[in-house]
Amino acid sequence: MRIESANVVNNREIAGGIWHIEMEAPGICGEVIGPGQFINIAVSDSWQMPLRRPMSIAGNSGATLEIIYKLFGKGTKELSEKRAGDSLNILGPVGNTFKVDVQNGTPILVGGGVGIAPILWLHHRLQSERIDHKLIIGAVTADEHFLDHNPREGIFLTTDDGSLGEVGTVMPTLERLTLEIDHSTVFACGPEPMLRTIRHYTNANNYACQMALESYMACGTGLCQGCVIELEHEDVPQNSYHEVYSLVCCDGPVYDAKEIRM
Ligand SMILES: Cc1cc2nc3c(=O)[nH]c(=O)nc-3n(C[C@H](O)[C@H](O)[C@H](O)COP(=O)(O)OP(=O)(O)OC[C@H]3O[C@@H](n4cnc5c(N)ncnc54)[C@H](O)[C@@H]3O)c2cc1C
Ligand code: FES
Q1: For 74-86, how does the pLDDT look when each residue is reduced to its tens digit (9 = 90+)?
Q2: Domains and CATH numbers, the chain
Q3: What is the pLDDT of residues 107-146, one digit of tens each?
Q4: Which atom of ligand 2 is the closest one to the Cα of 54?
Q5: Which residue has a Cα nearest atom 2 of ligand 1?
Q6: Of all helices (H) and strands (E), which one includes residue 175?
């Protein structure tokens, strides 16, 4: 992990409120391991925005790092104003990665909202390694999608309002695919309500599932204890903090769905 001044190569809107930024960061790229990892971006050097914004890595090739982000508040608005040639102070790579083992079944990847970045990167990795898998991406409406709905190629888009792909949340599609495929493992990233529902479904039906959590973070480096998640645990002696809680920024963001409470 290191701090680096990245050079913005490209920053553009690819769907309604969804942006894609490419930056050159040879030092951090040299340390990147895989999907799930993220960087912490100092979007501004103003004292009014002291906290870095955590963003999943959406891809990396050579010295170039990609991020896909959704306009949310002040920080992401400021990020969208960066132009080619601007520099961006970033810290990373941070965190662990999804672990794919085809012996554990066909991967079903599920992304929603701001959680599409690591899922898309995993999708591209599996494609390049010719590993058969399915991809489900959920959004509220067609505007937020930038891929094609292509069930023949194993790509399923869903929209809450039915304006593109399959109608509803990602859940009906996920439930159908897990029933159709003999043996599968689910990899998910997205808003907490989506992850909670997926966790409940996969645990109840004993499907393997790894999920990348996007907890609120302040320091992003293990200092503030702001990103705590409760672990699944038996009765433990008092003061056994590390058996009961985990810091998403240090121990995560990827967890086995059976090891956490949400
Ligand atoms: C590990 C991780 C990976 C992430 N990856 C992505 C990604 O790939 N694309 C993307 O669009 N978003 C991602 N997010 C969420 C993203 O960090 C927030 O949307 C962003 O920080 C909002 O900043 P803001 O200034 O626009 O919003 P504001 O509401 O103004 O932010 C205020 C503060 O709250 C924090 N914050 C607000 N929302 C979130 C959130 N959902 N998660 C964590 N911190 C938050 C901000 O970092 C900031 O410190 C990720 C979050 C985490 C923890
Ligand atoms: S964000 Fe500060 S400890 Fe994790």
Answers
A1: 999 999 999 999 9
A2: 2-94 (2.40.30.10), 98-214 (3.40.50.80), 215-262 (no CATH)
A3: 999 999 889 999 999 999 999 999 999 999 999 999 999 9
A4: 1
A5: 214
A6: helix 171-180
